[in-house]
Specification:
Chain lengths: 113, 116
């Protein structure tokens, strides 16, 4: 079935280092979304990417959607302790005349001061 | 604007019992989705309702069921609870159904279920 693979599962960095999480789909995605879940919290929507090759920035966060719309990445420049949490990608797969939203397993980020 | 409200926030049940969780979406949102979250398993999709109709269903046994009311509030029910049902159950509302291929999800705080 459709799958969205996300790597790495877990990463810890020193404050100030960069961080990247990758999302790969077995099939072409209609759109892809990214969410952040702080420890003990609930997922919060960050962004949606729609176009092939799209790049969007939110301050220190850069989101990319691959040319083939099968992969995506989230890059954080100069991490801060406030970046701690789990980052999920979620891709819309179009199948059987209907889009289904499928979440990746998430990347848990720990930032050491 | 009030967010997504889930009740109860915490509950403890024993094996074999049943449980009902409630979700009130953001005003104006007609799509409600339910997810199960366990450590290391990410977000597992349970089902989605839009305008009182189930639009999509995940791969969970029939013990998991749900419904949506005319005011868009939704409930999910788990019967004959098993230890493995212990999890955080998250509800998310959206303006449009996922079938549209768009629309951000607004998650509630979740209902944490412990089955003993």
């Amino acid at each position: 079935g459709q799958q969205v693979m996300q790597i790495p599962q877990y990463q810890h960095v020193q404050e100030g280092e960069d961080f990247t999480t990758y999302c790969n789909s077995s099939t072409t995605l209609s759109n892809i979304q990214w969410y952040k879940q702080r420890p003990g919290g609930h997922p919060v929507f960050l962004i949606q990417l729609v176009k092939s090759g799209e790049v969007k920035k939110q301050k220190r966060l850069t989101f990319q959607f691959g040319e083939a719309k099968k992969n995506s990445s989230l890059h954080i420049t100069a991490t801060q302790t406030t970046d701690v949490g789990t980052y999920f990608c979620a891709g819309f797969h179009f199948s059987g005349g209907y889009n289904k939203l499928i979440f990746g397993a998430g990347t848990r980020l720990a930032v050491h001061p | 604007k009030a967010g997504v409200t889930q009740t109860p926030r915490y509950l403890i049940k024993t094996r074999g019992q049943q449980v009902t969780l409630s979700c009130s979406p953001i005003s104006g949102h007609r799509s409600v989705s339910w997810y199960q979250q366990t450590p290391g398993q990410g977000l597992q999709f349970l089902f989605e309702y839009f305008s009182e109709t189930q639009r999509n269903k995940g791969n969970f046994p029939g013990r998991f069921s749900g419904r949506q009311f005319s005011n868009s509030r939704s409930e999910m029910n788990v019967s004959t609870l098993e230890l493995g049902d212990s999890a955080l159950y998250l509800c998310a509302s959206s303006l449009v159904p996922s079938g549209s291929g768009s629309g951000e999800l607004f998650f509630g705080e979740g209902s944490r279920l412990t089955v003993l």
